[in-house]
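Database export, one record per block. Field names are fixed; values are copied verbatim from the stored entry.
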Amino acid sequence: MLPPDTRRRPSSALTDRPVAVIGGGITGLAAAWHLKQAGVKVVIFERAAEPGGVMATGRSGEWLWETGPNTLFENSLDIQVLIDRLGLGSRRQVANPAARRRYVVHRGVPVALPDSPLSFLTTPLLSARAKFRALGEPFRGPGRDDHDESVAEFVVRRLGPEFLDRIVNPFVAGVYAGDPAQLSVRHAFPKLAALEREHGSLFRGALQRRSTATGPSGRMVSFPDGLAEIPRALALHLGDAVRTSHQVTTVSPEGTEWRVDFTAGGQNHSEVFAAVVCTLPPHALMRLQFPGVPGAETLMNLQAIPQPPVTSIFLGYRQADIAHPLDGFGLLAPENEHRRILGTLFSSTLFPGRAPADHVALTTFVGGTRQPELARADDATLLAMVQSELAELLGARGAPVFTHIQRWPQAIPQYIVGFQRFENLCANLEHHAPGLLLGGTCRHGVSLSHCLAAGEELAELARQRLATASLNALLRTGTD
């Protein structure tokens, strides 16, 4: 049983109509859960047969793999409290301490990223000149506030081109499956941009934040049955408020309320709600119809947000058939190494229960903005390609004993340079349509921790909308 929620409950006037949440992925489920905890009735519409969106876990015997995110970075008290209140606290699996080690490919072999001042000075990843340039970062002036700088421009300006090519480029491939020359540092990595803006230096800012930090420092976690335990627990607590196999087609204002048209069971239906929270990814949001909402046609501009394909290939090997010790989080490939993979997670090193005894599990990612055509290759081609890469990079011998391929034709939204126009588009729609909220990966971040935080933020905004509507209704009643 969940512990009691001590936050103030809204009056009954706020709950005459439920709030509609469109999209039963992790952001929508989190938003609905927070609304329910605040005493607000809610209905979730999910097109698929199961809630959770891309966040699912597969199992076959003792093999366990993730179809979407592989770890949760538990970096805030809010996320810790959510996990505990869902009854998952005792099931938390903290990542193996070895996961702090990260490898990148350098001249065809895995090299550990530096994790201390001494290892930075001795790493073969950077030349002496590049190290000297990086050490001078605190003495460089800030960039222009009026320029939406790319990640590549930002890193070269502050740390130099080698740092970009050999360290940041593979990191960006691991987070966004993207290109640092296309991504906006302000939108894709806002905390990085904030370090320069607030402290004048990345190094000084990082040291200052570390010395003044009071909350959780952050840890990677999962669960015995994978990250799918989170959407499963959210859906369990939400009960019949979650409507799967329900496809929303139209959202339109009806006075101060909202009409949602949807299909379910081969039939068309329509219901009225107090507010609508939409958590769809960009490619799905632009297909939704909003008749009567000023400026709704501008949603078609969301098609300019790239969502390149990514395919993950989960392979199980006998431990004796892998030469590398797999003593880390995984391996990332810089673009200038010209590999056919973005990187590989050492899944069975990260958390227990991912592979049978004396076996290892590896999750390899292919495609992204770098090589989208490879993500679309047929299964046989993909398997042969990944096996060849793992043989060269990790010393994998022979064929894997288990395989699973997961394809995402439109994967991670790219927060490209100029992304502010999409932020403005969503904000403009919300301004002209009180009670309509747009959020999730279309504007709030792409990581699992970002999605959970976005769900809580959207719930609070919806609750404020209901409170304002209730107050206005009371004022109108008092003047009649």
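Remark 1: Residues 448-479 form the longest helix (32 residues).
Remark 2: Residues 130 and 163 are 7 Å apart (CA to CA).
End of record.
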